Amino acid sequence: MTEQLIALLREHLGSFVSGEQLSRELGCSRTAVWKQIRHLKERGYEFESAPRKGYRLLKTPERLDANAIVSKRKAKLLGRSVKLYDEIDSTQNAALELVRTGAPEGTLVIAEQQTSGRGRMGRPWHSPHGKGIWMSLILKPEIPLAYTPQLTLLVAVALSRAIKYETGASAGIKWPNDLLIGGRKVSGILLETHAEGERLQHLVAGVGISVNLAQQDFPEELHSRATSLLIETGKVTDREALICAFLEQMEELYVLYHKEGFAPIRTLWEALSVTLNRPVRVNVGSNWTEGIAEGIDELGALVVRLENGERAKLFSGEVELR
Ligand code: BTN
Q: How far is CA 254 from CA 67, 69, 153, in A?
């Protein structure tokens, strides 16, 4: 019904359509029409409404276009197939399902909105309609499972570089893969893997970027911790261009990783890190311990010098900058 309503209003672009006509043509009550209009406003559509005249469509939000992404991208392998959903529970679920049914490496799943977007540690990921980039990329690197943290760091570097290239904003990486601007999180990465024995079969790299969200688009409890590219740069970012820039950066680093291993990625990650050489609070097992983040080891684990002088290696977990 939402799509039919948009089509109807588009047919009469520039002129009013009465609530009565809309309810007749859509076969529903005027209250139902009014509820749909309210729903569309939340999705970025703008209307003028006037008593007795009805509604006039003024502006439609920018929508992503899968074909445009496939043809605009410069990457060759990544993004050669793009599946776009208007609304889905989680692009991770869709990508995991696709890979189970044989989708090739480089397949990208994007959604305008996620109803159950998930973050690390089972946290929810706020994914409102049309304002962010919520995407999952299928990769099939032939590496041992133990090397997976390296890929996490690789994705974070690609993302930070793409944001810089497209918007000019500098996003620092908080280990392992949070992107921060001014101490607040603008983007998060979630890697989900499937292995057989010690070998990785495939992984799905889930990336969430808060692109064009205004402060009021975040729930109150996130205001102190989350930000968006719009808030930081004051400009609306072209989401398709940013997706293409990410695919390009990702492909460049992925090829480099296959040729030269993790060492060059590690150097790039260290240069973008906001964690290294900083006092941090880390959860080791079920305890929080304080120490100095010293570096990244050859597998991608964070090395922390604890207060008692011992070193802890973290492969996953939570780090708080002090
Ligand atoms: C985190 O920082 O905790 C990771 C957030 C990852 C969010 C992205 S949005 C696209 C993909 N689909 C999901 O459900 N999660 C990831």
A: 23, 20, 11
